[in-house]
Amino acid sequence: MTPTLTQARSRTETPRRRPKRMRRRGTLIAWAFLSPALLLFLFFKFIPMFEGLRMSFFEVRYVGDRWVGLDNYATIMTDDAFVSAIWHSIVLALGTTAGSLVLGLLFALLIEGPARYLWFIRTAAFLPVVTTMAAVAEVWRIMYHPADSGMINTILGWISLDPQPFLASEHSSLLSIMGMSIWRGTPYDMMIFLAGLVGVDRTLYEAAAVDGATTWHRLRHITLPALRPVFWILFTLAAIRGIRVFVEVYVLTNGGPNGSTEVLMTLIYKLGFQKGDLGTASAGGIVLFAVTLLLTVLTQVMRRRQNA
Amino acid sequence: MMRFDSALGLESRRGPLATTLKVLVYAFMVIIFTGPLVGLLVSAFSKTLDPTRFTLWPDDFTLENFVQAGNKNVYHYLFNSFVVVGFGLLLQMLVSVFAAYALARKKFRGMAFVMLIMLATMMLPEEIIAIPLSLVLADMPIIHADLIGTYAGMILPVGAWGFSILVMTEFMKEVPVELEEAARIDGAGELRIFFGIILPLCRPALGVIGVFGFTMIWDQYLLPLIVAPESSMWTLPIALRSLRSDEEVGIGVLLAASLLALLPSIIAFLAFQRQFMRGLTSGAIKG
Fold this sequence. Notes:
The complex is a heterodimer.
Chain A: H1 2-13, H2 20-55, E1 58-59, E2 66-67, H3 71-78, H4 80-110, H5 116-130, H6 133-143, H7 151-158, H8 173-198, H9 202-210, H10 215-243, H11 247-252, H12 264-274, H13 278-307
Helix pairs in contact in A: 3-13, 4-8, 4-10, 5-8, 8-10, 10-13, 12-13
Chain B: H1 16-44, H2 64-71, H3 74-105, H4 111-123, H5 130-138, H6 151-155, H7 162-172, H8 177-185, H9 190-201, H10 203-218, H11 222-227, H12 236-239, H13 252-271, H14 273-285
């Protein structure tokens, strides 16, 4: 008897607990405020997502799609063009990620500090990140011009190196795209590393100096361990971004020469919009999604293992 | 006693050799990262008949490239870009603040589910849904409208962005509840509270989502590519490919157009630098 009584009393005494009608009204208002976002997400993210999943099991035609089960996926997995495109995507993603991370960390260490002129250098170095990809890619395409008079070849000439074909040769085209992507990815990583460096405990540096540690020791045992979480975040972000690369390749080479830079997205685009094979293209999209997901899970697992 | 402001402690090394090395390293960085952009700026104002001509040294100053650009409809593409980014950003910011208000200030059933949806959309790269999205845009479910070749087709899909919503939500959580309750006791309605109290206090965060939204929409490529098959609806970034060669000024038109495509986001970044850096670190640290 007593518990119910106190419960009843406390319910009437605490004004914090609002009446049911009020709460229902609050819920209604919340959903009303959320509805524009949810509607847009529904129409432009989730419906296309499920439509893509559905189409990947069909041969898409103007009159009535035909169910083909896993045929589209089988086509992808056995098609040489698709297999090498997946391979190119992975190489490009890993190369760009690794290059940006290493250079980003190096540059972050070099320009760490509160000085005013360092702020200027940071701002200047960050510009590539905010630039429009398509325009930057056109600029790089011109700089990569394979003739001796091309800009980068001219610079190579100053230090007496032979002119390179860059995008024009199937041996160097993928590397050239990687070069531009690293140029654009490095300042981003650098900035995040700098933010991480601010959080490193300064008293540890002083303690290390008292113990007579060298700069290398300080770096190896204090700075780098402190940056580990930042490193994993950047790795995951960059790898996901790298695997779905499209604009860079589309503008610089459009997959050429001789398919040497064909990545998943350019192939999917060609299949879907130029050849009209929507079923196989959709299956390609799903595969890309699966690779992205796998990559994310894999990095999370590695991160856990390293922390344990 | 040495001071440690940085991991390498470069600041405390002041000898002539150290200073020279530092200056060299810093100059190298600035040249590497801004060189291509400065080169574009200079070359766009130079005579550039030769397709390899890309210089850091101004010569033969001319506005010819920008005049020719007009003949190639570059200013029309620029106009299209501004229409899309203008309305797109307005929509995106409105949608974001509305959604953030619900997520930050209301307790309701299904909130965890909504948060999950937001994160899912951020995990789902837009490239993956490009093909089905083009079909959905051609024949919208339920309302059966065809958005291909319209501004709406380029604007509506960027209207909701998980990043903006989450940044805004985090910020709105910081606004003290007392302000809201006081207004409620005074009899202010939901929209009054939202526009009169919450939103003005979120101005710094509006700067963050504004500058990020601008660069995000301005950089859109795949979306206009699938929405605008006709050149009259092209935005500047996707038009660049068609401007690669010109009988009159060679790559001059391409350089002028590229510069016009780059400048707005660079200006936005320089003007809102502080907000940009804030959004950058908060976004990355939270994943």
